[in-house]
Amino acid sequence: MQVIGTSQFVGRLQAHIQVPDSTFIYAIFILLIYTMSAAFATAVWAVDIRVNAGGNAYTDGASNVWSADTGFNTGRISTAGSGVAITGTTDDVLYQVQRFDSAAAPDLIYSFAVPNGDYTVKLHFAENYSGVFSVGARVFGVQMEGATVISNLDIYGTVGANVALVRSVPVTVADGQMDIHF
C-alpha cells in the first residue's frame, strides 16, 4: 500500500463500502489510518486505527488487529454478505458484515481524530449483495472533508460481483477530524 504525505504528516485510510439498493445505504468499512508526525525534529509517533465496520474485532492474515465497529454516528448492522468469498483479498471476513443506514437523514458518517495533514485514503469496495448484481443497479458517491471524492461509482459495473476494488483518494484534514460521509 502506498502512503503519500507531507514531510510533517503521512497517512492512509482503508474503507470498504457497499450500498445494497436505492432505499438503503450499506457501508462496509475496513478503516486503517496510519499517521506519523515529526512533532519535533527527533520525535516521531505513529497511530494505527483499524475498524471492522459492522463487525467484531478481527486479526487479519498479516497479524494486524482490527477493532470492533466504532467511529460511526448512525446505522444498523447487516450480515447479508456473510460467507461470501471475495476475490482479491485473503481477509473475506472484513467484507462480509456491514453497517447500513437508510436513505433518510442523518447520513452515515464515520469520524476519527487525526493530526492535521495530507492523507492518501484507500477505499476498498466489493459488491456482495445479489439483489444488485447488474450494471447500474447501485451507483453512489463518497464525501470526505466536505468534498465529493468519488461520484457515480458502480462496483458491479466496474469489477463484477464479489471482487475487491480499491480507489485511492488524496484528502487534507485541517480540523483534526477525518470525516467520511456516505
Highlighted features:
182 residues, 8-stranded mixed beta sheet, 4-stranded antiparallel beta sheet, globular
Describe the 3D structure:
It is a single chain. The protein has 182 residues and is mainly beta. It is 5% helix and 48% strand. It has helices at residues 93-96, 155-159, and strands spanning 4-5, 9-15, 24-27, 30-40, 43-52, 58-59, 65-68, 76-78, 98-102, 109-113, 117-125, 140-144, 147-153, 165-173, 177-181. Strands 1, 2, 4, 5, 6, 7, 11 and 14 form an 8-stranded mixed β-sheet that branches. Strands 10-15-12-13 form a 4-stranded antiparallel β-sheet, with no helix packed on it. It is globular, with a radius of gyration of 16 Å. Mean pLDDT is 74; it is low at 1-46.
How much of the sequence lies in strands comes to over 45%
Total DSSP E strands? 15
* Low-confidence regions: 1-46
User: What is the chains' assembly state?
Assistant: single chain
Helix content: under 10%
Topology pattern, helix = H, strand = E: EEEEEEEEHEEEEEHEE
Distance between the termini: 24 Å
Sheet with the most strands?
8 strands, mixed
